[in-house]
Amino acid sequence: VIAALVFGIVNALIGPVLRLISLPLTIVTLGLFTFVINYLLFVITVHFVNLYDPSSGVNPWLADLYGAIIMMIVSTFMHQTSRAEATR
Prior knowledge:
With 88 residues, the protein is an all-alpha fold. It has helices at 2-13, 15-21, 23-28, 33-49, 60-86. It has five helices and no strands.
């Protein structure tokens, strides 16, 4: 729960700044650079919450990568759902 709250705060405060700065690169890559931004937001969240346990055997790079992929899929689904509701 704490990690979700921290991610929400990081996403609300730092996310728009990163998206604005990287807008030209996002346009050139047709939106795929958004994945890199989500990854960076996850890395920042893990750094603040200090969730990484070296004895767990989990690679933090892969955990952040999987989190960014899941975030991208859920965000795309929610965006499409809200768009479908708006056209009704």
